[in-house]
Write a structure and sequence with these properties.
The complex is a heterodimer of chains A (451) and B (89). Chain A has 451 residues and is α/β, with parallel strands linked by helices. Helices cover 43% and strands 17% of the residues of chain A. Chain A is globular. The chains are: A alpha/beta (451), B alpha+beta (89).
Chain lengths: 451, 89
């Protein structure tokens, strides 16, 4: 017999504390789709995604009702499209549109994998593919793109960093009428992972199996509630509480992941232990940091609080799942977290502090709106800074930044839905143009030589 | 297959009768009931066996939600594994 406390705790977590499975993401290999022409490949890509993922919406809906736990997003990630498009890179857009159409047919909101991995070098066909990103993202609705420009093993490809600054500017300008919305679907990574279930950075790595189910659990609200219950605890006890809570959340994710994989005839991939906020009040990572004792996120102490939270979530989660992967940690997207939005609006959270916080949490500068007149070289320099943090610390870092056309500091932007809204944040105005225009490769750090 | 049915809400007469009738109509067997009043709130946990029933758990969950609205209680039915997963190692 179950005890009252346990059963009611689960019900409360779901009903009052926003516990949910944030995403069930099916990773699909598109390697068997490569054919003689772009047109043939596009048809195969569309058919493959539609066939493999045809039941994902129904199965997740059934699971959600049977287990009584909401499954918020159903998504698909695919083999980095630059690989599929290599023989006909000038027609990459055809593949992008086929993927977008497949997402519509299957009934999912985002499909990730219009991606390229250029962390060590960039072939001509990859440069051509990356150059197609602005147009493809502005002309599609559900397709997400990512580019890996550095790794701890290979260093940082500064030619790709330079190009991505320009690509982000073009992407923003091509979706000007929606305040640069298309940039919200574009992530620049260092140390990208191959099994990330979260958008916009999800893709299905070359080292992965044919069809895989990866699950992202969430639960900032549950952690927040648990911490509220121990207002006078010291930090050792607080970390233990976060660990215990993360354990429970992850166990729910593991259960759903295995069952979803079974019903969808896919392999169980990984559970990603991330605290992913939404713009809903009470579902915020920033509010957790504030409950720990900060007046507002962004003040001194934010990095230490986040470091502890991130580590405790991992420790609790690792114990709870047989296979942990993806990004696993706490996300700090600005526009998707009510606490971050408020801190930015009041001027208590700036890009420099966010950058420091990304050194200890799971991703990077995420969903940040900056003035539309920010030069491409400044965007590249922001990417280079983030990539350096990732490269030196052996962790994934990313930049998802929106230079909002015709807007500046003091304005705000609303992307709607889970992408939320945000005030524009100031960037440093002194130029990094000379540094970025040098090009070349920042060599891998000394500690990459482990062989 | 076993599921856990929970009923929470303001106490009133006839709650157990209505729930039992609902289950009986669907050939769902009650294995265990535990019920208490917590600060005027009625809280009941039932373990039920669906193996003799033709009802699908997902549809049953929808029906429980509607029954709950009708009688002014919060009623959930969930696969027992979710509780096992979260609360036991």
């Amino acid at each position: 017999m179950f005890n009252y406390g346990d059963v009611l705790e689960t019900i409360n977590m779901i009903e009052k504390e926003h516990l949910d499975i944030r995403t069930v993401t099916m990773g699909i290999s598109l390697l068997p789709c490569i054919s003689g022409s772009a047109e043939q490949t596009a048809v195969k890509v569309y058919d493959t995604v539609c066939k493999k993922a045809e039941n994902i919406v129904k199965v997740t809906s059934d699971l959600s009702r049977e287990y009584g736990i909401p499954i918020v997003n159903k998504r698909v990630s695919v083999t980095p499209a630059a690989v599929i498009c290599a023989p006909f890179a000038e027609k990459s857009a055809l593949i992008g549109k086929a993927l977008d159409n497949a997402a519509k047919t299957v009934g999912i909101d985002f499909l990730g994998g219009y991606s390229a991995l250029v962390h060590k070098g960039m072939a001509d066909y990859e440069r051509e593919f990356i150059s197609s990103i602005p147009e493809v993202l502005s002309q599609t609705e559900r397709l997400c793109s990512s580019v890996n420009i550095g790794s701890s093993k290979s260093g940082i490809n500064m030619n790709a960093v330079k190009l991505m600054g320009e690509v982000i500017k073009q992407t923003a300008n091509k979706s000007k009428e929606r305040d640069g919305y298309a940039c919200a679907k574009l992530v620049v990574f260092c140390n990208a992972v191959e099994d990330n279930p979260f958008m916009a950075g999800a893709f299905h790595g070359i080292g992965e199996s044919g069809t895989v189910i990866n699950v992202g659990v969430s639960g900032p609200g549950v952690v927040l509630h648990a911490i509220k219950g121990i207002p006078n605890a010291d930090l050792t006890e607080l970390a233990e509480t976060v660990k215990r809570t993360a354990f429970k959340i992850t166990r729910a994710g593991q259960l759903i992941a295995k069952e979803a994989a079974r019903r969808l005839n896919a392999e169980f991939g990984i559970v990603d232990l991330s605290l992913a906020p939404t713009p809903a009040r009470g579902d915020s990572v920033a509010q957790i940091l504030e409950e720990m004792g900060l007046e507002q996120v962004g003040t001194h102490g934010s990095t230490a609080c986040l470091a502890m939270l991130n580590d405790a979530v991992k420790k609790g989660g690792v114990m709870a799942s047989s296979r942990v992967g993806g990004l696993s940690g706490a996300f700090i997207p600005v526009s998707e977290d009510i606490g971050m939005i408020e801190a930015a609006e009041r001027g208590n959270l700036c890009i420099d502090k966010l950058e420091a916080m990304t050194a200890v949490c799971s991703v990077g500068l995420d969903m940040i709106a900056v003035p539309g007149d920010t030069p491409a070289s400044t965007l590249s320099a922001i990417i280079a800074d983030e990539a350096a943090i990732g490269m030196i610390n052996n962790k994934t870092t990313a930049v998802r930044i929106v230079p909002v056309p015709d807007k500046t500091v003091g304005d705000s932007v609303n992307f709607g839905g889970l992408l939320g809204h945000a005030p524009l944040m100031a960037v440093h105005t002194r130029s990094a143009d000379k540094f970025i225009s040098r090009g070349g490769l920042i060599p891998a750090p000394i500690h990459s030589n482990k062989n | 297959m076993r599921a856990v049915l929970t009923v929470v809400g303001k106490d009133k007469t006839g709650i157990i009768a209505k729930i039992s009738a609902f289950l009986s109509e669907r050939n769902i067997n009650i294995l265990d009931i535990s019920q208490t009043i917590l600060q005027e709130y009625f809280a009941m946990i039932m373990i039920v066996d669906l193996s003799q029933s033709k009802a699908e758990l997902a549809l049953l969950a929808d029906e429980c939600g509607r029954l709950g609205e009708k009688i002014g209680m919060s009623i959930h039915i969930q696969h027992e594994e979710i509780f096992n997963a979260m609360h036991s190692i």
